[in-house]
Amino acid sequence: MVKLHTLNLHCNLIARIESLDHLLNLQHLDLSSNRIHWIEGLSCLANLRTLNLACNLITKVEGLENLYNLTKLNLSYNRIDDLSGLLHLRGPNYKINHIELHSNSVNNVNHLLQCLCGLQYLTNLTLEKNEKSNPVCAKIGYREILLQALPQLTILDGKNIFGEPVNLMEPNSSDLKCLEDLLSCLVSSSYTDEEETYVNLPIITPRIDQVLAQFRQRAKMSPWTTTSSSTEIMSSSEPEKIKFDNDSRIKKLEEQISHLLQKVTNSSKADVTVKAKKETDFTSESGSESGKENRKATKRSKLPNYRKSTLSTKLRSQKSKLSAREQEKDFIKSKFQESHIKEGQSSSPASEIASLKIVGETLEKLGGPKSQLKKLNVDTGIQEEFTYRVLIQELDQEREKRWKAEQAEKKLSESIKQLQNQAKEEKDIQSVAVYTTDRLQIDIRQLKEEAEKLGKELERSKQKEEDQQKAVQTLEEALSKLESQKAQQQASEVKRIQTAELKASAAEREVQLLRICLQQQKEKVEQVHELLTLREQEHRKELETRVTLNGSEFQEALSKEVAREEQRHKDHIKELQEKRHLLNQKYKDLENEFRVALTIEAKRFSEVKEGFDRLTAELAEHKQVLLHSQQKEKQSATLIHELTSVVKEQKDKITELIKSKQDIVYNLKSQIQTLENMVEEDQQKTIQLELLKQEKSKLTSQVTAQESVIDGLKAERKIWGEELAQQGASLAQDRGKLEAKIEVLTSETEALKKQNESFNDALQIKSKIVEDQTETIRKLKEASQNRDEQIRNLREDNIEIQKRLQIQLQEKDAQLDNLLEKLERQNERKEELKHELQEKDAELNDIKESYSVMNKKWQDKGGLLNKLEAQVKQMKENFDIREQQLREERDKSLQAQKIMMEKLHSVDDAFRRQHESTIAAHQAELLQLANEKQKQVVAANEKVCQVEEEMRQLLQETANNKKTMEEKIKWLTVALSDIQQGL
């Protein structure tokens, strides 16, 4: 745990940062998607480079004073409004260059600039990303202010200084550094492989193993540094390209590593073969490396052929071998010097030095026998033969072991290749498993979010249904009110029609009375004319009947007077005739005016009659319309009642569907949870299997390496035995040392055998565990298949339910269309009635104007009558002056005329008063009716508008609900298909 470099605690329930003080080498820490409120407990993490605290409950930045090596800080999706903790990161000692603060509550530009001014290495700042921003971003010109105040910035909100989008996804530097360290280790180790091949010891590369372990741990962990947070789903194409580039880069590095490993193995093989050839040349054996020759060597007899040779040949062979040994020693020394020069850059020289020491010791051991050969030749021959036999047996055994070691080397090379291929396959499987687990986690989160959204939408739909119920109730109340108002309007209209009929009958009676009065006045005027003509005739008769005196003078005077009188009379007659003519003209004018008035009154009466007929016809039509509208209202009431029943049925169905959906969602959640648990168990089991495989491979490699070491030592022992058999006394001295080595090696082999037995037992136990796990995996697969079948059945049921809902919605749409058509017809009928009311108002206005014109004409006629009275008075005065006899009669006629005129005036005044009172009452009633009708029309229009708006809202809500339901269904089908594909 002390050497831990990366720690990923994403998506847990952590509320406080603690217990991290012992992780001194920690470089990458991911605490995203937790419940952290404060930044604390990080003071001991001096080597920390990247810190991810996204998707938490942090409100203030603090506790970062001791993080000198921190380069990247992710604080997105929090509640931060105070950045005062960044003030402590000022100066050249801090290396922070990348800060992510999108989806927070930073609202003060000055505070932001104060906290970020001292960060010298800050080059990348994100305050807005994927439409998630801070309140500061809404201010005008905040980008220009930040770029001017922070000149070190090169990237702001994913865009460079020029406003162009920048690739924000950077490769994981820690992974690349691990791979670079691995390459450097491989390169340094490749230089030392030449020296290591001379000693058949296991290749110990602790640094390479450490780097590979770090890289494998990296591959298992999800690269959190490349993404701002796991909750932030990358939908654009740029992150995918960046991931592809990172994968390709890592693949290239892996290919380079495998290539270097192959080079190392090939070079080691070549060195081993060269060494074998050299050693076989020195021992005067065949130089072939095939297994057949080695097998032939093992089948030889224990007593070799060189036993027949003489001592001279032995001495020659010993001298030649000693010279070859000296050459070999010089060659090894030169190699050791070269390796020592190259060793400055390598990382593991201990094994080389150990191998060189072993070679030196063997050479020193070989140098000693020269002085002791003479002493051994002097000794008895019996001991030599015994020692020769023992040495020959040991040499044969060592040859067999050497041949076995060569075969083991070949098998090891093949097994290494197989292990490399298996490692590649395991890496691929691990990458695929990690990718699938990430996809499954993302899908599960999406499903959870979708389930939450569906729950919220169900709540919204419930609220909408309640609102619709309330709206339907309000509509029913409004319809009941409209029905009551229509009944009241019908009653008021019937009353108004009755009053109008009464008024029309009264007007007809008044017109008849006026006609009778006019006839009476005409008769009276004719009587006056007859009286005047009779009196003129009587006056002429009286003048004719007067007695004339028979005197000349009298007659002359009379004749003169008569002539004068005649002239006067003629003049007077002329004047009277002129006056009469004028009066006749005036009378004719009056008659014409009376005739015009009578014609006007007749026209007016005919118009009134026609209007009355029209009104009666319109009343009949209105009655029919009212009956039709009442029938329609009854039909609409029945339809509304049916609609309410249908709505109630739909509500019941919707509640049932909601319950079924909730059950389905609950089942899906439970299934998803079980699947997640199963996936986690599978992952743990796969990890355990991989660890077991790694341990097995390590153990096998260690065993094979130890066996190869033992075989190599035995082969060397055989070689040295042959040389000792040829050299004689020199081998006797080395015998004790070789026996000690053999004892040590035998003890080591026994220990290794015991370890192998224990490892084999552990492997058997682990293989049994793996078999049990495979059986459980099979059972889990069968359970998953059954669950897939259940999910398919549920999908089919959902599809059938959706089809039924669509059919019901179509029927409802048809019903709503019919209702809308009926409403449109009623609206058209209302508009027609409005037009008719307007026409009637115009007719009433015309009638009022005609009444005003008639009043003016009656007033003019009254003035003319007054003028006629004045003229009659003047005529009376003239007749009184000239003819006294006619005065009395004229006075009588004048009195009669006065009486008649007074009667006419009284009748006219009474008629005028009655007419004016009727007109005023009629006008007042008309005004009241018009006002009431306007109010009713306005109220009806308002109610109609309200009903139309409510119906439109209902239609819009139904359409929106349709769309949302279709989108949800599509989304659910897509999500379920993705889940099936993922499974």
TrEMBL record:
Keyword annotations: Cell cycle, Cell division, Coiled coil, Cytoplasm, Cytoskeleton, Leucine-rich repeat, Mitosis, Repeat
InterPro entries recorded: Leu-rich_rpt (IPR001611), Leu-rich_rpt_4 (IPR025875), Leu-rich_rpt_typical-subtyp (IPR003591), LRR_dom_sf (IPR032675)
Gene name for this UniProt entry: LRRCC1
Top-level division of the source organism's lineage: Eukaryota
Coiled-coil residues: 402-524, 555-593, 665-709, 735-968
Ranges of Basic and acidic residues composition bias in the record: 272-281
Any one Gene Ontology cellular component term annotated for this protein: centriole
Region (Disordered): 272-328
UniProt family annotation: Belongs to the LRRCC1 family.
Record localization: Cytoplasm, Cytoskeleton, Microtubule organizing center, Centrosome, Centriole
Primary location class: cytoplasm
Lineage, uppermost ranks: Eukaryota, Metazoa, Chordata, Craniata, Vertebrata
Name by which UniProt lists this protein: Leucine-rich repeat and coiled-coil domain-containing protein 1
One Pfam family here: LRR_4
A single BP term in Gene Ontology: cell division
Function recorded in the entry: Required for the organization of the mitotic spindle. Maintains the structural integrity of centrosomes during mitosis.
